[in-house]
Amino acid sequence: MLGVHLIPIFGERRLPDISREAIQTFLAAKLRDGFAWETVHHIRCALSKVLGTAEEWDYISDNPIRKTRLPRREQKTERPILSPEQIKQLLVALPGPSKSVATLLVLTGLRIGELLALRRKSYRFRCEDAPH
User: Fold this and answer.
1) H or E element that contains 60
2) Which of 19, 24, 21 is nearest to 71 (CA)?
3) Are the beta carbons of 70 and 44 closer than 8 angstroms?
4) Among candidate residues 9, 15, 19, the one with its CA nearest the CA of residue 65
5) pTM here?
6) Phi and psi at residue 75, to the nearest 5°
7) Alpha carbons 11 and 6: distance in angstroms, whole number
8) Which of 24, 26, 93, 129 has the lowest tally of Cβ within 10 angstroms?
């Protein structure tokens, strides 16, 4: 986050020269560029930590990010939910590995990030783990 978003914009500036207006403009530009509200919020939090530490160490007199605001988060439209019949049709149409992944998602409710974090070696079932 620092290397990709913050240092390219603020890295060459002196800490006292980072104004509320510059931060507010930067955050608004990130939203206009299509970044998710949550991502921009995380960027704002990271910058707040940096500037908060600079304030604690007396490099700046106050943290200008406290005076910035993100616009209200837009309400997301409700995602469609597949019916049991649609799920059956999907699973029948999918080839082997895709069918296994889709079945795992449907049965567990995992989100895509959780699915991608799974590693086979982490979840290997061993006979000694089985209840007797």
Assistant:
1) none
2) 24
3) yes
4) 19
5) 0.58
6) -70, 130
7) 7
8) 129
